[in-house]
Amino acid sequence: MRDTKGIEIFEVDEHGYVHPIDELDLDLIPEPEGLAVIPPSRDAGPCCNDCIFCYIRQNPPEVLRRNGGKVDTTKHDTLNDPNLEERVEKASERYPELTFRIVDTAGNVGLDAGRIEDLASRGLDEIQISVHTAVPETRCELMRNPNADRLLELLPAFEDVGVRVIADLVLTPGYNLEELPFSLRRLDELGVSEIRVFPVGGTDLAEGFRFPTEEEVRWILRVCDEVGGEVESEVRPSPTLRALLGEPVEDPPDLPEPDVYTYLVTGELAAPVFEPAVEGLDRVELVVVKNRVFGGVIGAAGLLTAGDVLRELESLNPPEEPSMVILPDAMFGPDGVTLDGVGKDELIGRLAGMGFLVEVCRTPDDVAAVLSSPVPTV
To answer: Per-residue confidence at 13, pLDDT binned at 50, 70, 90?
Structure first.
């Protein structure tokens, strides 16, 4: 049995055991201590949707989807998992102190009032659903699923059995963006406990929709603030919205002057966090990598590729003295491979061959600790 004291977030594996993760593995919105998320297992079937903004169709051909070097075109849904109830029951019995939440589901497959009641009886506490809108016709159009409207009718059934619903709204101009005020109020009426609001994202391979403008992002934040003050549901706009406006998603870390000249690598979304932190440091240079493999409109460090990082670092003129590169751990998947198929050890080896000491950091605190270390780990 794992000791869960002092650990904030967990993930439930296919056998009903939990493993620690952190907020960077989710959607950057702070989570309560003792949360255990239940994602799709390897046995989970497809989501049965064909969403306008689906990330899978936006991947360039060279991007590998961590499936033995092959492109994985399967869109899994946690509810389409034959062993889901067993996982929930085993985990809730082993770790009664944790809160269990199903994630990565649109609620469009394998769901009815009877199953909702069964999941609650097995120990499910919460479910996070990709709802996107409270307008039935729009949901069908956006998800390109003629049955997507049924989910809205089922939402009150979760409240009836004590399962807390978190509704995700990915706002897509021309589809559900303009409906935001109505959706917030209607989802509140349907018993949704929490509503998380995100801007649609994608690459330049996206077709059939566009990304929100700066004016639309500011409008989204105003609506969340105004309507959020009227409804009982907790309305939580994603930190990504403010990041798109050039605002930091968290307070700048306090970084010390290192012993060696250091290149701190990050994506465009995290740049506003680190820019004020490196001001005044003579031996730290922020390297903001533009994501060219995905078309230059993706700024998350978790979607950086080895190719883009190498291209950026090769263009530098490093000092003659030894220098260090700090990479974001988020760019490596659970299997230690980037989205363009390069392993962590391979990338570190290539950078070492260029003469760099290399560190991989998970959080700003990790970066501060590395910079404080007198002897960096090669």
So the answer is: very high
Q: What tokens appear for 86 in the block?
A: 């067993």
- 370: tokens are 């590395």
CB contact at 8 A, 203 and 294: yes
Rg (CA), the chain: 22
Q: What is the percentage of the chain residues whose pLDDT exceeds 90? A: 57
CA distance 64 to 59: 9
The DSSP bridge partners found for residue 169 are 197
Q: What residue ranges of the chain are covered by domains with CATH 3.40.50?
A: 261-372
Strands in 164-171's sheet, in edge-to-edge order, are 18-21, 9-12, 35-38, 99-105, 126-130, 164-171, 194-199, 234-237
Q: Say which CATH superfamily domain 9-244 falls into.
A: Aldolase class I (3.20.20.70)
The tokens describing 245, both together, are 């406006």
* 345-364 per-position pLDDT tens digit: 999 999 998 889 999 998 88
Q: Residue 301 gets which letter from DSSP?
A: G
- The better pLDDT of the pair 65, 136 is held by 136
Provide the edge-to-edge strand list for the sheet that holds 284-288: 284-288, 261-266, 323-328, 356-361
Single pTM value for the model: 0.81
CA distance 110 to 292: 38
Indicate the DSSP class of residue 372: H
The two structure tokens encoding residue 112: 């009815």
Domain 261-372, classified CATH 3.40.50, yes or no: yes
pLDDT (tens digit per residue) in 135-166: 999 999 999 999 999 999 999 999 999 999 99
Judged on CB neighbours under 10 Å (0-12, 13-18, 19+), 162 is: exposed
d(CA 177, CA 213): 11
Residue 83: φ, ψ to 5°: -110, 15
